[in-house]
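Collaborator request, handled under Task 6.
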Amino acid sequence: MAALRVVVSLLILVSPELQQATALAAHPERLNYVPEGARWFAALELTPSAAQTLRFVALSSGAFALLGYYSRSALAVLTLSAMPLYALSQFSGAVLHDMHLFWFSGLLALSPCGDIWALDAWGTQPARAAREYAWPVALCRAFLGVIYLFPGLHKLLESGWDWGSATHVVAQMHAKWFQWAEVPWLRIDRYPWLCSIGGHAVLLFELGFWPLVSWRKTRPFAACLGLGFHWATQAFLFIPFVSLWACYVVLVPWGSFRRRSNPALSKPEQGARHATLPALAFGTLVLTLALVQGVRGQTQAWPIACYPTFAGIIGDRLPDLLVETESPAGERIRFTGRERAPRTQAEWGRVFRISGVYGSPPDASALRDHALAAAARAGLSITPGSLVRVYRADYATSPEAWQKAPSNPVLLTTFHAL
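Structure tokens returned to the collaborator:
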């Protein structure tokens, strides 16, 4: 629990979501998407000054939690102050699946996480019953299990074992390479047999992770598989997900090390069961809600959701927004805003949201803002009076076809530049 306290506190403190919260609060017009479960965060309507104040509180309490000074109180304050700031990043159009940090921080606030490696424990020896640590840690492992289980299950239910075919795995990689405008050091897409092995291994890993972490003897194996999985996704899909695999500290057998150094810890103490009840209640509630969202496959929710499933079979094209300007003199220019630098994953999510890819109708106002921002990002100046058209078009994702013209353009909105 102490190791997880250090890791979770540090991850929350250094996250981009915390750092950019004040800037996001200064542009409420861009925060027009509220995912399921986050409406009460949106109701706060944080101003830049309020966001800055909460950020100061989060940074201060996070430092206390990291050092283990009033550990549980500090974690409670960190959770309550940082969650509204993280929520702002969800309102821009794409859900960022970082909510597990608050599942862990909330559980830690109700658990004995400051008994070692903490200023709270300075000069003292921990003397709690083993179950006071065992139950919260078991819940943390269950959190990890549910995060992996449902993406694998939905892949299998929607696409079957064909999801792991070489053709589809290559398509998934090409889509990510296209989004990042970068090709990995090893063109693994040129080895179909290796892609097929990797795709089917992903299915087996996601479906088997929870059972593996539930049994003490297989936890080291699960941790190694998880680290290998995340290394591969970072190397070949450019998805690092440090905020998840760093929490694997709950898979390390710290308790065994402690019991060897102090055998008295294995003896139960009176009152241990009652001390564990708040953590059990919180953990059970979060786990139950996560299971419900997982069964539903609800990825567009926050702070409890099914993690991205990538369940559908995709092709060799990806939708994007294409902007065309026509000046009063008849000069036409086409651009996407990706000419100088790739978008972030959050920006891609917003593009998919406002263009109707996620199922909601295209948002004319958001499309207008996107077109103007894309022009500025591309270093273009739109002549006043120009007619601006915004299309959704399909782009080939294979690196060899990135320079090809898009296909299937669909006009979403038009407006005149002022």
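The cover message to the collaborator said: "The chain has a mean pLDDT of 93. Residues 127-315 form one domain. Please let us know whether this matches your experimental observations."
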